[in-house]
Amino acid sequence: MTSRRAFIQQTAWAGVGLSLLSASNVFATAKEKVRLGFIGVGLRGQNHLELALKRTDVDVVALCDIQQRMMDAALQLVKESGKPSPQIILEGNYGYRKLLERKDIDAVIISTPWEWHTVQCLDAMNAKKWVGCEVITGMTVDECWQLVDTSEKTGMPLMMLENVCYRRDVMAVLNMVRQNLFGELIHLQGGYQHDLREVKFNDGQKPYGGGAEFGAKGFSEAQWRTQHSVVRNGDLYPTHGIGPIAMMANINRGNRFTRLSSFASKARGLHEHVVNVGGKDHPNTKIDFKLGDVVTTMISAANGETFLLQHDTNLPRPYSLGFRVQGSKGIWMDVNKSMYIEGQSAKPHQWEEAKAWLEKYDHPLWKKYGSDASGAGHGGMDWFVLNAFVESVKRNVTPPQDVYDAVTWSAITPLSETSIAQGGTAVDFPDFTRGKWEKRKNEFALDDRY
Amino acid sequence: MTSRRAFIQQTAWAGVGLSLLSASNVFATAKEKVRLGFIGVGLRGQNHLELALKRTDVDVVALCDIQQRMMDAALQLVKESGKPSPQIILEGNYGYRKLLERKDIDAVIISTPWEWHTVQCLDAMNAKKWVGCEVITGMTVDECWQLVDTSEKTGMPLMMLENVCYRRDVMAVLNMVRQNLFGELIHLQGGYQHDLREVKFNDGQKPYGGGAEFGAKGFSEAQWRTQHSVVRNGDLYPTHGIGPIAMMANINRGNRFTRLSSFASKARGLHEHVVNVGGKDHPNTKIDFKLGDVVTTMISAANGETFLLQHDTNLPRPYSLGFRVQGSKGIWMDVNKSMYIEGQSAKPHQWEEAKAWLEKYDHPLWKKYGSDASGAGHGGMDWFVLNAFVESVKRNVTPPQDVYDAVTWSAITPLSETSIAQGGTAVDFPDFTRGKWEKRKNEFALDDRY
Predict the structure, then answer these.
(1) Of B272, B316, B342, the CB nearest to A340
(2) What is the pLDDT of residue B5?
């Protein structure tokens, strides 16, 4: 019983040399600076903007949004940075196309509502821009295919800015996976378990809480994100959970997802929240939210691993992405901050604190850039994901998370919707690489470059 | 949006009065002593025997097994107890039928290999014995139906001796569920995550480890349990995980399971273990174990809850039944020993230690009998499950876990096998109550009686 995965793992590491070789080729055409445009400078876009403004290898040349309030906040960040004023585009939903017309822009960062991602990514690639897009790239399987087809046709890379792949503990565990501490990977878990009730409802002034409003009467994410909970039932936000474990299991690189089944619980949390915050006569108490409070998804992979994802955003609960990485020699879980490695952990059948393991296997990227990332959003991981995108553009290399990852991770949402609508029926997972997964190599975070 | 569950919950508590009333009726026919026969006195049967011998309300009148070594150990227990010597039956696989012929036996405790449970339960009920059977009652859906039909036809109750329903923390959480601390239940998890490699393989002398033998060359559970991992792929041991959470969600009592889907990972753990322990040339290295190392199962329920079960017995990992009980107001998880109850926990979005909650809501049964149970197997819960069976026989009342629970929990195995064999297809869950679930009341552990 040979281990196909171990083989792939070795070749992935062996690929470092190859990758350095190709890197030296592209350095001939490498840029020193990236000229960036921002499509969407709401709260998330402002996070990216602030990090970009701190970089000496980025020029922020244009900002686009549809709301004066958000643009004012973004311009304040520019002012504080002392950098030159960018072009300001405030011309409604399709104003971003004006930004894309500028030939001097290399790349765009898209941080808009999910439903705008596909069209904006497509337009940007067709305009020959590199695309760094916030998570959820493709709300339907058809949109996912459009993104793949357009990236392949135009030759323009799309990187989904999935930051959790760069979380410090996650990268240490990736390091452990690659050094075979867990043996052959068997089962992996992740999810998005985050009480978003005060994100989905607010008072129309503050971004978080204080009211039971959403849509036109809400502010920030409540303006658009909540509507997805009204009309859709599926794992609406799979990428933070699946991205890191997909990378560990070499999905799209010698492995691929094959089948998926999802179950959704009843929907109670959002209604109860509206009643509690807005009162029993609030108009939003009449809404029948379709999104089940807890959505559970199982996925199988070509190399025999199973994946479990949980989406849980409507109930009172502490935050947890629920990671579990389990192989033939050991297991890590983040909810109890624990590790067990056979033959190495102090006592058989006993958890030990993960802390010492995570420090010992701290990833080279974090060792090198941890101080640069310090203070950046979400514990520093936001710095790494933007850095990876900027470095990819500069070096003219495919981003470490590419278009196939972007759509594979995002497609979990529509696939889970289909499965749930069909009573949990298992559905086939599309192969967005069209067979290329068999020979592709994993180059994500192979060393300390980006 | 009224809560059907809250209604059922209230009526379940209201049912206490009714239950006392019927109890007073049956006291007319209550027995002071139960005359018990033991079918199977291997290691598990010896646990039950030892507890039975300590009771003043039980006479142990016959023991049956197929192995002299196990019988000798059982008789040593009898001797140490100072109780009268029981009849000894050592007459091969069907010797138990001789035990069932005795008219003076009220009830039997069955602790034999899984594959013998159904026929022995059927024979015992047909012989008009109360049946307390170790877990897994019915290895196929057809066997489950046979058990239901025979119990209904003969009027003889079958209680599966699922001890984890009586675990102290589980009962405290059940108490919290009934006092509405979690609000309306939304999602529940459990499982059997226990590294059984040294149970499945031993040296033929010791029950645990020391070799790579099983079947005819193994000893104790390895003689029969391991073979299930050779030929079956499914959640082979669902009852410890599902029993407690099914009771909390009133399954078969105002609620029922509706659909199930299972995914299995690849199988690596047992082969690697045989190689590590027996060497790469050991004959058992040639076996192709069918059981996936991690089997994940989702189940939906009529009242809209979702359930997640995990079976994980082939890999190095710390023991955990992986319980999670989540409602509209709070969540408990056992792997991180944590609780969060909205508005009551100290800090929003922060776990707190479950300990104080579990002590505060310690179940009345544990308060009353905790000292009796002290020292009994599996942290005391073995005492409670035997006590519940003996008390049910004495009072002539349906056991708190009845034949419908026994087969509903056990049927998860064959249903998961079917689902996995069909690529994760969701399958319908049979209604073993034939509609009675709608009106049945939950009488499990309603007070401090049994």
Answers:
(1) B316
(2) 45
